[in-house]
Amino acid sequence: QVDILYLQIIKCFGLFVFLFLSGQTLFKVVVKSLSPKELVRIHVPKPLDRNDGTFLVRYRMYETVNEGLKIEILYGNEHVAQSPYILKGPVYHEYCECPEQDPQAWQRTLSCPTQEPQIEEDFASFPSINLQQMLKEVPKRFGDERGAVVHYTILNNRIYRRSLGKYTDFKMFSDEILLSLARKVLLPDLEFYINLGDWPLEHRKASDIPGPIPIISWCGSLDSRDVILPTYDITHSTLEAMRGVTNDLLSIQGNTGPSWINKTEKAFFRGRDSREERLQLVQLSKENPQLLDAGITGYFFFQEKEKELGKAKLMGFFDFFKYKYQVNVDGTVAAYRYPYLMLGDSLVLKQDSPYYEHFYVALRPWKHYVPIKRNLSDLLEKIKWAKENDEEAKKIAKEGQLTARDLLQPHRLYCYYYSVLQKYAERQSSKPEIRDGMELVPQPDDNTSICRCHRKRLSREEL
Protein backbone atom coordinates (compact mmCIF):
# COMPACT_ATOMS: atom_id res chain seq x y z
CA GLN A 1 0.00 0.00 0.00
CA VAL A 2 1.40 3.39 -1.01
CA ASP A 3 0.64 6.30 1.28
CA ILE A 4 1.48 10.00 1.14
CA LEU A 5 2.28 12.00 4.25
CA TYR A 6 1.93 15.41 2.69
CA LEU A 7 1.45 17.19 -0.59
CA GLN A 8 2.60 20.76 -1.05
CA ILE A 9 1.37 22.63 -4.12
CA ILE A 10 2.82 25.94 -5.22
CA LYS A 11 0.23 27.46 -7.52
CA CYS A 12 2.41 30.08 -9.17
CA PHE A 13 5.40 27.94 -10.02
CA GLY A 14 4.31 24.56 -11.33
CA LEU A 15 5.91 22.52 -8.56
CA PHE A 16 4.72 20.13 -5.92
CA VAL A 17 6.41 17.87 -3.40
CA PHE A 18 5.14 14.65 -1.91
CA LEU A 19 6.40 11.93 0.39
CA PHE A 20 5.85 8.23 -0.27
CA LEU A 21 6.07 6.41 3.02
CA SER A 22 6.62 3.08 1.32
CA GLY A 23 9.55 4.39 -0.72
CA GLN A 24 8.18 2.71 -3.83
CA THR A 25 8.35 4.56 -7.14
CA LEU A 26 5.91 2.56 -9.27
CA PHE A 27 3.55 5.47 -9.65
CA LYS A 28 2.67 8.11 -12.15
CA VAL A 29 1.49 11.69 -11.84
CA VAL A 30 -1.10 13.17 -14.19
CA VAL A 31 -1.74 16.92 -14.27
CA LYS A 32 -4.72 17.99 -16.36
CA SER A 33 -7.46 20.57 -16.60
CA LEU A 34 -10.23 20.20 -14.06
CA SER A 35 -12.80 20.65 -16.80
CA PRO A 36 -12.95 17.98 -19.55
CA LYS A 37 -14.12 20.76 -21.90
CA GLU A 38 -10.84 22.60 -21.44
CA LEU A 39 -8.06 21.13 -23.54
CA VAL A 40 -4.76 22.53 -22.28
CA ARG A 41 -1.18 21.58 -23.10
CA ILE A 42 0.64 20.58 -19.91
CA HIS A 43 4.08 18.96 -19.83
CA VAL A 44 4.94 16.77 -16.81
CA PRO A 45 8.56 15.53 -16.76
CA LYS A 46 9.59 12.42 -14.87
CA PRO A 47 9.44 12.92 -11.08
CA LEU A 48 12.74 13.68 -9.34
CA ASP A 49 13.46 11.04 -6.70
CA ARG A 50 15.26 12.70 -3.80
CA ASN A 51 16.25 9.27 -2.46
CA ASP A 52 14.75 9.85 0.97
CA GLY A 53 11.17 8.93 0.23
CA THR A 54 10.29 12.32 -1.24
CA PHE A 55 9.78 13.28 -4.86
CA LEU A 56 9.65 16.56 -6.76
CA VAL A 57 7.21 16.83 -9.63
CA ARG A 58 7.28 19.76 -12.03
CA TYR A 59 4.74 20.67 -14.64
CA ARG A 60 4.71 23.33 -17.31
CA MET A 61 1.53 24.82 -18.73
CA TYR A 62 1.26 26.45 -22.13
CA GLU A 63 -2.17 28.02 -21.66
CA THR A 64 -4.33 29.57 -18.98
CA VAL A 65 -6.47 27.02 -17.14
CA ASN A 66 -9.81 28.62 -16.26
CA GLU A 67 -11.46 26.05 -14.02
CA GLY A 68 -8.30 24.76 -12.38
CA LEU A 69 -6.06 21.69 -12.34
CA LYS A 70 -6.62 18.13 -11.26
CA ILE A 71 -3.48 16.37 -9.99
CA GLU A 72 -3.76 12.59 -9.98
CA ILE A 73 -1.27 10.28 -8.26
CA LEU A 74 -1.76 6.76 -9.51
CA TYR A 75 -0.29 3.47 -8.36
CA GLY A 76 -0.99 1.21 -11.27
CA ASN A 77 -4.41 2.51 -12.30
CA GLU A 78 -5.59 3.19 -8.76
CA HIS A 79 -5.70 6.58 -7.08
CA VAL A 80 -3.65 6.66 -3.88
CA ALA A 81 -3.24 8.99 -0.92
CA GLN A 82 -6.43 11.00 -1.29
CA SER A 83 -5.78 11.57 -5.01
CA PRO A 84 -6.97 13.50 -6.95
CA TYR A 85 -5.92 16.92 -5.65
CA ILE A 86 -7.71 20.00 -6.93
CA LEU A 87 -5.97 23.29 -7.65
CA LYS A 88 -8.72 25.83 -8.22
CA GLY A 89 -8.33 28.17 -11.17
CA PRO A 90 -7.63 30.26 -12.90
CA VAL A 91 -4.01 29.08 -13.12
CA TYR A 92 -1.58 30.96 -15.37
CA HIS A 93 1.56 29.80 -17.13
CA GLU A 94 4.97 31.38 -16.49
CA TYR A 95 4.85 33.83 -19.40
CA CYS A 96 1.27 34.98 -18.85
CA GLU A 97 1.24 38.66 -17.88
CA CYS A 98 -1.51 38.75 -15.31
CA PRO A 99 -0.26 40.37 -12.10
CA GLU A 100 -2.12 40.03 -8.83
CA GLN A 101 -3.27 43.56 -7.99
CA ASP A 102 -3.11 42.96 -4.22
CA PRO A 103 0.53 42.27 -3.26
CA GLN A 104 -0.47 41.15 0.24
CA ALA A 105 -2.81 38.54 -1.22
CA TRP A 106 0.02 37.35 -3.47
CA GLN A 107 2.38 37.09 -0.48
CA ARG A 108 -0.22 35.15 1.50
CA THR A 109 -0.72 32.73 -1.39
CA LEU A 110 3.00 32.04 -1.45
CA SER A 111 3.25 31.89 2.36
CA CYS A 112 6.02 34.48 2.22
CA PRO A 113 7.87 34.92 5.53
CA THR A 114 6.78 37.97 7.49
CA GLN A 115 10.43 38.80 8.17
CA GLU A 116 13.74 38.07 6.48
CA PRO A 117 16.64 38.71 8.90
CA GLN A 118 19.10 39.59 6.14
CA ILE A 119 16.74 42.14 4.62
CA GLU A 120 16.12 43.73 8.02
CA GLU A 121 19.86 43.94 8.60
CA ASP A 122 20.59 45.35 5.13
CA PHE A 123 18.04 48.15 5.44
CA ALA A 124 19.00 49.10 9.02
CA SER A 125 21.51 51.59 7.56
CA PHE A 126 18.85 53.15 5.32
CA PRO A 127 15.79 54.43 7.24
CA SER A 128 15.40 56.89 4.36
CA ILE A 129 16.71 56.70 0.81
CA ASN A 130 17.71 59.99 -0.77
CA LEU A 131 17.16 59.41 -4.45
CA GLN A 132 18.69 62.74 -5.45
CA GLN A 133 21.91 61.85 -3.62
CA MET A 134 22.04 58.53 -5.46
CA LEU A 135 21.43 60.15 -8.85
CA LYS A 136 24.34 62.47 -8.17
CA GLU A 137 26.78 60.01 -6.61
CA VAL A 138 26.35 56.60 -8.22
CA PRO A 139 27.37 57.53 -11.79
CA LYS A 140 30.49 59.31 -10.47
CA ARG A 141 31.54 56.65 -7.97
CA PHE A 142 30.59 53.44 -9.75
CA GLY A 143 29.58 54.28 -13.30
CA ASP A 144 32.92 54.71 -15.07
CA GLU A 145 33.92 52.75 -18.15
CA ARG A 146 34.80 49.71 -16.03
CA GLY A 147 31.48 49.88 -14.21
CA ALA A 148 28.96 47.08 -13.84
CA VAL A 149 25.96 49.00 -12.54
CA VAL A 150 22.46 49.19 -14.02
CA HIS A 151 20.00 51.95 -13.13
CA TYR A 152 16.39 50.69 -12.98
CA THR A 153 13.06 52.42 -12.62
CA ILE A 154 9.86 50.45 -12.07
CA LEU A 155 6.80 52.54 -12.86
CA ASN A 156 3.24 51.28 -13.32
CA ASN A 157 4.59 47.71 -13.31
CA ARG A 158 6.87 48.42 -16.28
CA ILE A 159 10.64 47.97 -16.11
CA TYR A 160 13.00 50.66 -17.48
CA ARG A 161 16.79 50.69 -17.34
CA ARG A 162 20.05 52.25 -18.46
CA SER A 163 23.52 50.76 -18.11
CA LEU A 164 26.49 52.49 -16.44
CA GLY A 165 29.77 51.03 -17.68
CA LYS A 166 30.55 48.30 -20.17
CA TYR A 167 30.45 45.25 -17.87
CA THR A 168 26.68 45.04 -17.62
CA ASP A 169 25.90 41.96 -19.71
CA PHE A 170 24.57 40.18 -16.63
CA LYS A 171 21.61 42.54 -16.71
CA MET A 172 19.85 39.73 -18.55
CA PHE A 173 19.44 37.99 -15.17
CA SER A 174 18.09 41.04 -13.33
CA ASP A 175 15.87 41.88 -16.32
CA GLU A 176 14.40 38.41 -16.39
CA ILE A 177 13.54 38.10 -12.70
CA LEU A 178 12.02 41.61 -12.58
CA LEU A 179 9.90 40.84 -15.65
CA SER A 180 8.85 37.52 -14.17
CA LEU A 181 7.83 39.22 -10.92
CA ALA A 182 5.90 41.91 -12.81
CA ARG A 183 3.90 39.21 -14.60
CA LYS A 184 2.80 37.78 -11.25
CA VAL A 185 2.26 40.72 -8.91
CA LEU A 186 1.91 44.49 -9.01
CA LEU A 187 5.32 45.88 -8.14
CA PRO A 188 5.84 49.11 -6.18
CA ASP A 189 7.10 52.17 -8.04
CA LEU A 190 10.80 52.60 -7.27
CA GLU A 191 14.17 53.65 -8.68
CA PHE A 192 17.37 51.83 -7.77
CA TYR A 193 20.83 50.71 -8.86
CA ILE A 194 21.95 47.08 -9.17
CA ASN A 195 25.61 46.13 -9.07
CA LEU A 196 26.23 43.30 -11.54
CA GLY A 197 29.86 42.81 -10.55
CA ASP A 198 31.28 40.26 -8.13
CA TRP A 199 32.34 42.54 -5.30
CA PRO A 200 30.00 44.62 -3.12
CA LEU A 201 30.55 48.34 -3.70
CA GLU A 202 29.43 50.47 -0.77
CA HIS A 203 32.04 50.50 2.02
CA ARG A 204 31.01 53.69 3.82
CA LYS A 205 29.79 53.28 7.38
CA ALA A 206 26.54 54.67 8.72
CA SER A 207 28.51 57.20 10.80
CA ASP A 208 30.44 58.51 7.77
CA ILE A 209 29.63 61.87 6.14
CA PRO A 210 28.33 61.49 3.52
CA GLY A 211 26.78 58.22 4.59
CA PRO A 212 26.35 54.99 2.61
CA ILE A 213 23.94 54.65 -0.29
CA PRO A 214 21.86 51.50 -0.88
CA ILE A 215 23.45 49.82 -3.87
CA ILE A 216 21.80 46.45 -4.53
CA SER A 217 24.23 43.54 -5.07
CA TRP A 218 24.27 39.78 -5.36
CA CYS A 219 26.94 39.24 -2.74
CA GLY A 220 27.55 40.91 0.62
CA SER A 221 30.59 41.25 2.83
CA LEU A 222 31.29 42.11 6.44
CA ASP A 223 32.87 45.44 5.48
CA SER A 224 30.21 46.65 3.01
CA ARG A 225 26.65 48.06 3.20
CA ASP A 226 25.15 46.75 -0.03
CA VAL A 227 21.58 45.45 0.00
CA ILE A 228 21.70 41.79 -1.00
CA LEU A 229 19.51 39.90 -3.46
CA PRO A 230 19.78 36.20 -4.36
CA THR A 231 22.79 35.77 -6.67
CA TYR A 232 22.41 35.82 -10.42
CA ASP A 233 23.23 32.12 -10.34
CA ILE A 234 20.41 31.23 -7.91
CA THR A 235 18.10 33.60 -9.79
CA HIS A 236 18.89 32.03 -13.16
CA SER A 237 18.62 28.54 -11.69
CA THR A 238 15.18 29.33 -10.26
CA LEU A 239 13.95 30.64 -13.60
CA GLU A 240 15.49 27.67 -15.43
CA ALA A 241 13.98 25.24 -12.94
CA MET A 242 10.59 26.25 -14.28
CA ARG A 243 11.78 25.36 -17.78
CA GLY A 244 13.16 21.95 -16.83
CA VAL A 245 16.90 21.96 -17.49
CA THR A 246 19.43 19.84 -15.63
CA ASN A 247 21.75 21.94 -13.46
CA ASP A 248 19.15 23.82 -11.47
CA LEU A 249 18.27 23.93 -7.79
CA LEU A 250 15.52 21.34 -8.20
CA SER A 251 17.32 18.89 -10.50
CA ILE A 252 20.26 18.74 -8.10
CA GLN A 253 17.91 17.32 -5.50
CA GLY A 254 17.09 14.35 -7.71
CA ASN A 255 20.73 13.61 -8.55
CA THR A 256 22.58 13.39 -5.25
CA GLY A 257 24.62 10.30 -6.03
CA PRO A 258 24.85 7.05 -4.06
CA SER A 259 23.34 6.64 -0.61
CA TRP A 260 25.48 7.95 2.26
CA ILE A 261 26.94 4.56 3.12
CA ASN A 262 28.06 3.99 -0.48
CA LYS A 263 29.72 7.36 -1.06
CA THR A 264 33.52 7.59 -1.34
CA GLU A 265 34.82 8.59 2.08
CA LYS A 266 36.90 11.54 0.91
CA ALA A 267 36.55 15.30 0.67
CA PHE A 268 36.13 16.61 -2.87
CA PHE A 269 36.75 19.84 -4.77
CA ARG A 270 36.85 20.92 -8.40
CA GLY A 271 36.97 24.51 -9.61
CA ARG A 272 38.90 27.37 -11.18
CA ASP A 273 42.01 28.97 -9.69
CA SER A 274 40.12 32.07 -8.53
CA ARG A 275 41.65 32.09 -5.04
CA GLU A 276 45.02 31.06 -3.64
CA GLU A 277 43.45 28.74 -1.09
CA ARG A 278 42.17 26.65 -3.98
CA LEU A 279 45.77 26.04 -5.00
CA GLN A 280 46.52 25.05 -1.41
CA LEU A 281 43.69 22.53 -1.65
CA VAL A 282 45.33 20.82 -4.61
CA GLN A 283 48.66 20.68 -2.79
CA LEU A 284 46.96 19.16 0.27
CA SER A 285 45.29 16.65 -2.02
CA LYS A 286 48.63 15.58 -3.49
CA GLU A 287 50.03 15.09 0.00
CA ASN A 288 46.92 13.40 1.45
CA PRO A 289 45.16 11.53 -1.36
CA GLN A 290 43.45 9.21 1.12
CA LEU A 291 41.55 12.18 2.60
CA LEU A 292 41.09 14.69 -0.21
CA ASP A 293 40.52 14.70 -3.97
CA ALA A 294 40.96 18.30 -5.21
CA GLY A 295 41.77 19.65 -8.65
CA ILE A 296 41.84 22.90 -10.62
CA THR A 297 39.85 22.69 -13.84
CA GLY A 298 40.93 26.02 -15.35
CA TYR A 299 43.80 28.46 -14.82
CA PHE A 300 43.37 32.20 -15.22
CA PHE A 301 44.76 33.98 -12.15
CA PHE A 302 47.72 31.67 -11.44
CA GLN A 303 48.64 30.29 -14.84
CA GLU A 304 52.24 29.70 -13.75
CA LYS A 305 50.99 27.05 -11.29
CA GLU A 306 49.42 24.78 -13.89
CA LYS A 307 52.62 22.88 -14.62
CA GLU A 308 53.26 22.27 -10.94
CA LEU A 309 49.74 21.39 -9.81
CA GLY A 310 48.29 19.94 -13.01
CA LYS A 311 44.88 20.47 -14.55
CA ALA A 312 41.93 18.28 -13.59
CA LYS A 313 39.31 17.10 -16.07
CA LEU A 314 35.90 18.69 -15.90
CA MET A 315 33.27 16.64 -14.08
CA GLY A 316 29.50 16.79 -14.18
CA PHE A 317 28.20 18.44 -11.03
CA PHE A 318 26.01 15.46 -10.16
CA ASP A 319 29.19 13.37 -9.91
CA PHE A 320 30.44 15.54 -7.05
CA PHE A 321 27.98 13.75 -4.81
CA LYS A 322 29.76 10.44 -5.20
CA TYR A 323 31.91 11.81 -2.37
CA LYS A 324 30.83 12.10 1.27
CA TYR A 325 32.40 15.48 1.94
CA GLN A 326 32.35 18.63 -0.20
CA VAL A 327 34.87 21.45 0.33
CA ASN A 328 33.43 24.91 -0.26
CA VAL A 329 36.14 27.55 -0.78
CA ASP A 330 35.50 31.14 -1.91
CA GLY A 331 36.01 32.14 -5.52
CA THR A 332 36.56 35.82 -6.22
CA VAL A 333 33.84 36.36 -3.58
CA ALA A 334 31.46 33.79 -2.06
CA ALA A 335 31.47 30.55 -4.05
CA TYR A 336 28.12 30.48 -5.81
CA ARG A 337 28.17 26.68 -5.90
CA TYR A 338 27.45 26.62 -2.17
CA PRO A 339 23.62 26.37 -2.41
CA TYR A 340 24.00 23.46 -4.83
CA LEU A 341 26.38 21.67 -2.47
CA MET A 342 23.96 22.20 0.40
CA LEU A 343 21.14 20.58 -1.58
CA GLY A 344 23.11 17.39 -2.12
CA ASP A 345 23.36 14.79 0.60
CA SER A 346 27.08 15.20 1.26
CA LEU A 347 28.59 17.01 4.24
CA VAL A 348 29.75 20.52 3.34
CA LEU A 349 33.05 21.74 4.81
CA LYS A 350 32.71 25.51 4.48
CA GLN A 351 35.62 27.94 4.53
CA ASP A 352 35.30 30.86 6.93
CA SER A 353 34.58 33.91 4.78
CA PRO A 354 33.78 37.63 4.99
CA TYR A 355 31.45 37.15 1.99
CA TYR A 356 27.88 35.91 2.13
CA GLU A 357 24.78 35.27 0.04
CA HIS A 358 21.24 36.19 1.02
CA PHE A 359 20.47 32.91 2.84
CA TYR A 360 23.66 32.40 4.88
CA VAL A 361 22.18 34.24 7.86
CA ALA A 362 19.92 31.24 8.53
CA LEU A 363 22.79 28.72 8.63
CA ARG A 364 24.76 27.64 11.70
CA PRO A 365 28.17 25.93 11.89
CA TRP A 366 28.09 22.37 13.23
CA LYS A 367 24.34 22.27 12.58
CA HIS A 368 24.15 22.82 8.81
CA TYR A 369 27.84 22.53 7.82
CA VAL A 370 31.29 21.98 9.31
CA PRO A 371 33.38 25.19 9.44
CA ILE A 372 37.00 25.29 8.33
CA LYS A 373 39.48 28.12 8.85
CA ARG A 374 40.11 30.61 6.08
CA ASN A 375 43.72 29.42 5.63
CA LEU A 376 42.51 25.77 5.53
CA SER A 377 44.92 24.86 8.35
CA ASP A 378 42.30 22.64 10.03
CA LEU A 379 40.80 21.06 6.90
CA LEU A 380 42.50 17.67 7.24
CA GLU A 381 41.58 17.59 10.92
CA LYS A 382 37.91 18.23 10.07
CA ILE A 383 37.89 15.52 7.39
CA LYS A 384 39.32 13.05 9.91
CA TRP A 385 36.67 14.14 12.42
CA ALA A 386 33.94 13.46 9.87
CA LYS A 387 35.32 9.99 9.11
CA GLU A 388 35.51 9.14 12.82
CA ASN A 389 32.05 10.55 13.60
CA ASP A 390 30.05 9.22 10.67
CA GLU A 391 26.59 9.43 12.25
CA GLU A 392 27.10 13.02 13.38
CA ALA A 393 28.49 13.97 9.97
CA LYS A 394 25.47 12.37 8.28
CA LYS A 395 23.12 14.23 10.64
CA ILE A 396 24.73 17.62 9.85
CA ALA A 397 24.61 16.89 6.11
CA LYS A 398 20.90 16.05 6.30
CA GLU A 399 20.05 19.09 8.44
CA GLY A 400 21.88 21.34 5.97
CA GLN A 401 20.11 19.75 3.03
CA LEU A 402 16.64 20.12 4.55
CA THR A 403 17.26 23.73 5.50
CA ALA A 404 18.56 24.58 2.03
CA ARG A 405 15.53 22.92 0.45
CA ASP A 406 13.29 25.20 2.46
CA LEU A 407 15.27 28.41 1.94
CA LEU A 408 15.85 27.91 -1.78
CA GLN A 409 12.41 26.91 -2.99
CA PRO A 410 11.38 28.96 -6.03
CA HIS A 411 8.57 30.77 -4.25
CA ARG A 412 10.92 31.78 -1.41
CA LEU A 413 13.22 33.53 -3.88
CA TYR A 414 10.32 35.41 -5.44
CA CYS A 415 9.18 36.40 -1.94
CA TYR A 416 12.69 37.61 -1.14
CA TYR A 417 12.97 39.72 -4.27
CA TYR A 418 9.58 41.29 -3.68
CA SER A 419 10.37 42.06 -0.04
CA VAL A 420 13.59 43.86 -0.99
CA LEU A 421 11.77 45.97 -3.59
CA GLN A 422 8.97 46.71 -1.14
CA LYS A 423 11.33 47.77 1.67
CA TYR A 424 13.27 49.93 -0.74
CA ALA A 425 10.15 51.65 -2.10
CA GLU A 426 8.88 52.43 1.40
CA ARG A 427 12.08 54.33 2.17
CA GLN A 428 12.29 56.49 -0.96
CA SER A 429 12.10 60.18 -0.14
CA SER A 430 11.06 61.26 -3.65
CA LYS A 431 9.11 59.82 -6.56
CA PRO A 432 10.90 57.59 -9.09
CA GLU A 433 11.09 58.77 -12.68
CA ILE A 434 12.01 57.44 -16.10
CA ARG A 435 15.39 59.15 -16.66
CA ASP A 436 17.09 60.24 -19.88
CA GLY A 437 18.72 57.28 -21.57
CA MET A 438 16.43 54.68 -20.03
CA GLU A 439 14.74 52.11 -22.24
CA LEU A 440 11.72 49.93 -21.63
CA VAL A 441 12.56 46.29 -20.95
CA PRO A 442 9.73 44.52 -22.80
CA GLN A 443 7.97 41.42 -21.62
CA PRO A 444 8.93 38.39 -23.75
CA ASP A 445 6.64 37.63 -26.65
CA ASP A 446 5.77 33.98 -26.10
CA ASN A 447 3.79 33.01 -29.18
CA THR A 448 3.75 29.34 -28.17
CA SER A 449 1.56 29.93 -25.10
CA ILE A 450 -1.92 31.39 -24.74
CA CYS A 451 -2.52 33.89 -21.94
CA ARG A 452 -6.03 34.73 -20.80
CA CYS A 453 -5.95 37.06 -17.82
CA HIS A 454 -9.11 37.16 -15.72
CA ARG A 455 -8.02 39.92 -13.39
CA LYS A 456 -9.26 43.47 -13.70
CA ARG A 457 -6.34 45.85 -14.13
CA LEU A 458 -6.78 48.58 -11.53
CA SER A 459 -5.21 52.00 -11.77
CA ARG A 460 -2.99 53.09 -8.91
CA GLU A 461 -5.60 55.69 -7.98
CA GLU A 462 -8.14 52.90 -7.49
CA LEU A 463 -5.67 50.94 -5.41
Walk me through the structure.
GO terms for molecular function: UDP-glucosyltransferase activity; UDP-xylosyltransferase activity. The protein is an alpha+beta fold. The protein is 25% helix and 23% strand. It is built from eleven helices and 23 strands. The strands form seven sheets. It has a five-stranded parallel β-sheet. The chain has a four-stranded antiparallel β-sheet with strand order 1-2-6-5, with no helix packed on it. Strand 8 (68-75) and strand 9 (78-79) form a beta hairpin. The longest helix is centred in the last third of the chain and has 18 residues, at 390-407. It starts with a strand and ends in a 22-residue tail after the last strand.
Key features of this structure:
single chain, 463 residues, alpha+beta, 5-stranded parallel beta sheet, 4-stranded antiparallel beta sheet, 11 helices, disordered N terminus
Tell me the radius of gyration: 24 Å
Q: Please outline the major beta sheet.
A: 5 strands, parallel
DSSP strand count: 23
List the total number of helices: 11
What portion of residues belong to β-strands?
15-25%
The rounded distance between the terminal residues' Cα atoms is 52 Å
Alpha-beta classification: alpha+beta
Give unreliable regions as ranges.
Answer: 1-6
Quote the average pLDDT. 90
Helix content: 25-40%
User: Please, what is the oligomeric state?
Assistant: single chain
What best-fitting shape do the alpha-carbon axes yield? globular
State the strand order across the main sheet.
18-17-19-20-22
GO molecular function: UDP-glucosyltransferase activity; UDP-xylosyltransferase activity
Organism: Marmota marmota marmota
Protein name: Protein O-glucosyltransferase 3
Pathway: Protein modification; protein glycosylation
